[in-house]
Amino acid sequence: MPWPLPYPFELAFMQRALIAGVVVGVFAPMIGTFVVQKRMSLIGDGIGHLAFAGVGAGLVAGGGLALGVWPVWGALAFAVVGALGIEWLRARRAASGDLALALFFYSGIAGGVVLAGLGGGLNAGLLIYLFGQPLTVTSEEIAIICGLGVAIVVTMLVLRRALFAIVTDEDWARVAGLPVGALNAVLAISIAVSVVAAMRIVGVLLIAAMMVLPVASGQALARSFRGTMWWSVGIGVASVVTGLAASRIWGLAPGGTIVLIAAGCFAVVTLLRRGAAFRLRAGGAEL
Amino acid sequence: MAAPERIRSSRRAPGEILLEAEGVTFGYGRTPVLEDVSLRVRAGEFVALVGPNGSGKSTLLKVLLGSLSPWSGSVRLLGESPGRIDRARVGYVPQRPTLESEVPATVEEIVLAGRLARRGWWRPLRREDREFVRHALESVGLDELRRTPLNELSGGQQQRAFIARAFATEPDLLLLDEPIAGVDAESQRRFRDSLAHLIAEHGAGVLLVSHELSAVAPDLDRVVVLKQRVIFDGPPAELAASGVSLGVHREDLPLWLEGLR
Predict the structure, then answer these.
(1) Extended beta strands in A25-154, E state
(2) pLDDT band at B3 (very low <50, low <70, confident <90, very high)
(3) Among B173, B211, B161, B197, which Cα is nearest to B55's?
(4) Nearest CA to CA, how far is B179 from chain A (Å)?
C-alpha cells in the first residue's frame, strides 16, 4: 500500500525509487567531499568499472541471472579489493593517482565484458547495472541500500575530522601520528561500498558523478569543509528527487536524468557566482 | 585572553634533552647525504639549522622525524626512538608555500586537526579543545580570520595557520622546515612572537630549518651549520666571528655558508 504522496510519487514503485534515491543522494556526496579534497575525483569511476567486472563474475556464479544477489556480491567483492588495490598503489607511489585508476579502470571494464559474456548476461539485463534503474528497485534492494547507506554515513560522521586531516595534508597527518594507512583503507572501502549501494540507482558508470558533481556545486557555495559537505548532500538529494520526478513526467532514463540535473546545478551555481562577482566588480568600479 | 591552564604550564624541565641525534649517517642509493651528524635540542632552546642548498637539511629533518631510517647512528626524540614516541608531543610545520585545497577549509578546521592528533583521532572534540585552538590562533594572530577559508589567505597567513596547527598539539618539541620562506614582514614578526611565546611560556624546544633567520636572529640560542656534516654548532655571535652574520648576510646566507669551513 503506497503512501499518500502527490504525483509523480503516488505509485509504490516511485516511492521505492524515492527512498533508495534519497539515501544515495545523501551518502554519495558526503563521501565525495573527502574524495574531491583528496584529488581523486575519478576513483568512483575506476571502482565502478571494477564493480562491473564483479557483476560479470556474479553472473557466471549465478548461472546468468541478471537480477539476484550474485551480481551484487560479486560487485561488492571486486569493488572492495579494487579500492584497496588502488589505494595501495597510490600510497606506495608505485603509480600516480590517475595512472593507478586507469589500470583498474580499463582492467575492470574489460574483465566485466569478458565475464558477463561467459555468464551469458551480455544483454539488456546488464544495462540496469551500467546505467541504473531505480524504478525497478525491490523492497529487499531498498533494505540493502539503506543498510549500506547508514553504515557509510555513520562512518563518515564519526571519522570526519580524522578523514579531513588525512585528505587535506597526508604528510603532516603521518608525522602527527594519525593512522593514515588505516584511515585511507576505511575511506577506500567506504567508496567501494558506496558504488555498490548506488549501482541500482544511477549505475556503475554514473555513480562517480553523484560523488563529484554535487560537491563541485557545494564547494562553490560554502566557505568551509563542513559547509561544503552539507551543501553537497542537499544538492545530491534535490537532484535525485527532481530527477526521478522528471523521469516519470517525461519518460526519461532516471539514472542519467539525476546526473544531468546535478550537472545543471553546477552550471547554475557557477553562473550565479560569476554574476555576483561581476556585479561586485561593477559596484566597486562605480565607487 | 587567558590560555587554558594546561597550555600555560611548562611540562619539561629547562635543559632537558628533547632531541638527540648521535653520529647519524644517511644517503640515497649509495650516495651519502649526511655523515656522522650529531645534534641536540633542549627544552626552552631555540636552535636554527642552516646550510647551503643541497646540504641535507630537509633529509636530516626527515631522519629526525623517523620518516627515514639512518644507515648508522641513532635518533632520540623526547627520550624515545622516533617510532615509539607520542607523536603529538612533536609539532611539525612542513615546507610548503601554500596548501592547495580543492574544497574550502577554514583556518579553524585546519587547526582543529592539530587537536585531533593530540587528543586521539577517534575521540570527539570538546569545549576544552576549542579553547586550545583559539589560544593557538591568538598566538599567531589569526583569531579574527578563523572562519576564513585557508585558500583566501596570503602565503604568510597560511604558514601561520600551519604553525597554529602545530601549536594546537601542545608540542614539547617543534620542528619547522622553511616556514617563513617568502613571507611578508608582518607574518615574520608574528612568527617570531609566536615562537618566543612557545619557548618562554611552554618551555618547548624549537628546531628551525631556514635561510631567512634575520627576523629571529636575536632570539636564537644556537645555530647549527650543516654541509653533509655539522661544521658549526654554537651561538649566532660565534658564527658572526667566523665571518657569517645572520643579519648582514641575510639576503645570500646559503652562498656565505658555502664558503664556511
Answers:
(1) none
(2) very low
(3) B211
(4) 14
Residue A71's nearest CA partner among A139, A126, A151 is: A126
pLDDT higher than threshold 60 for residue A25:
yes
User: Measured between alpha carbons, how far is residue B35 from residues A121, B56, B62, B228, B258 in Å?
Assistant: 64, 10, 15, 6, 17
Cβ-in-10-Å burial (0-12, 13-18, 19+) of B121 comes to: buried
A212/B contact by beta carbon, under 8 A = no
**Contact residues, chain B to chain A, C-beta under 8 Å:** 65, 67, 86-88, 90, 92, 94, 99, 101-106, 109-110, 112-114, 116-117, 121-122, 125, 147-149, 162, 165, 169
Instruction: Report chain A residues whose CB lies below 8 A from the CB of B122.
Output: 159, 162
In the chain, the amino acid numbered A136 is T
On whether the CB atoms of residues B168 and B91 are closer than 8 A, the answer is: no
Residue A118 parent element (H or E): helix A97-118
* Number of domains within chain B: 1
Q: Check if the beta carbon of residue A160 is closer than 8 Å to that of residue A225.
A: no
Closest residue in B to A33 (Cα) is: B103
* Whether A172 and B122 lie within 8 Å, measured CB to CB: no
Please answer yes or no on whether B113 and A168 come within 8 Å at the CB atom.
yes
What does the pLDDT look like over A207-226, one tens digit per residue?
A: 899 999 999 999 999 999 99
Closest chain B residue by Cα to residue A163: B121
Predicted confidence at residue A11, as pLDDT, reads 92
Tell me whether A230 touches chain B (CB under 8 Å).
no
- Would you say B37 and B23 are in contact if contact means Cβ atoms under 8 Å apart? yes
Contact B94 A168 (CB under 8 A): no
CATH topology of domain A12-211: ABC transporter involved in vitamin B12 uptake, BtuC (1.10.3470)
CATH number reported for the structural domain that contains residue B154 in this entry: 3.40.50.300
Expressed as residue numbers, the domain containing B25 is 5-258
Residues A94, A98, A104: CA angle, nearest 5 degrees: 75
Mean pLDDT, residues B68-93 taken together = 86
Domain extents for chain A?
Answer: 12-211
Count of Cβ atoms closer than 10 Å to residue B69 Cβ: 11
